[in-house]
Structures are given as C-alpha cells and as structure tokens.
Amino acid sequence: MIGRWARLGGTLVPVFLAACGPLVRPYYNRDAGGYIMPDPSLTPTPLVPSALKGRSTGADGLRKAAEAYLGVPYRFGGQSRSGFDCSGFIRQVFAETHGLDLPHSSAAMYGRGESVSRADLKTGDVVFFKSLGFVDHAGIYMGGGYFIHSATSVGVAYSALDAPYFGSHYAGARRLLSAP
Length: 180
Description:
Blueprint: E1 2-8, E2 11-17, E3 27-29, E4 34-36, H1 60-67, E5 79-80, E6 83-84, H2 86-98, H3 106-109, E7 114-116, E8 126-131, E9 134-143, E10 146-151, E11 155-160, H4 164-169, E12 170-175
Antiparallel strand pairs: 1-2, 3-4, 5-6, 7-12, 8-9, 8-12, 9-10, 10-11
Helix pairs in contact: 1-2
C-alpha cells in the first residue's frame, strides 16, 4: 500500500492506495530462522531474462513494444514514457501493437477476453494478481515463466510467475488476442 494525502473538508487526511505489485523486501522464512531477501532471479528486473533472449514467440511485435519500455519508472495512474502503472503499461502496449482500447484498471481488464489456465499461457496473455481479495496488479506473459509489468519497486520490468509474491497472489489470466 502506498500512502497519499487528500483534502477532506479542508483537512489533509492520509489515503492508502493499492499499488501495482510488491516492493521487493525481505520475507520471513521459518526454516531459515528469520528474514531473507528473495532470490534475485525471481524479483523484478529491468533486464531481459536469459531464458527469453533470442527466443521467437510468434508475438515478437508485442514483445518488442513491451521491452522498449523496460526501465521506465513506476507512476501511479501513469500511461507514458515518463511513468506507467501496471494497467497503463498494458494499455499502452496493446494500443500500439493491436489498436485495442483497454480500460485503465487491472480489475476491469480481468473481465475482458477469454479465461486461460496457467498451464495454457501463451505470449501476450495478460496475467493478474490479487491481494485482499481484489485484482490489483497485472502484467503481460512473455513465455518461459516470465511476465513483464510495471512494478512499484523498479518500474517496467520482468518478473517470474513463481516468485514468492506473484506465485501466492496469482488470480488468473485472460487472452485478449487470438492465439498466434
């Protein structure tokens, strides 16, 4: 959660907004006897994972457009090169590559397209995550167990679907495009 301030009747009050994805932070591991940092290969990274380098997917235009934004910072409500939130990033990539006009809300996107099982994910499917019972984050699946998204911690980056946070908060996937 990210704290913001809003005016309510002339008084400033804190407003807590759900952010896109987790901040990378230590987590408690009982077996280790304390807090540990997640494996660096499973945290958001602005680098293309080695498993995806040189790999053709049939959705290379979408991948190229998405990767052109790697490293662009996170900005709540953003949809431009100066900053993206998760749904703004997805909206921009799908508008550029396929002319789709998607809503600027991951929860609203979750109601679009056809449902896809985790075992049947294809490059270009949109993966969704939830916390507190609500879909609050999304990214574009790129194959090999990785998706690209705008994370609060690093901006547009790749993450592994089975990273500790994402694996436990996975809500489902939707196919917005016909399979290549």
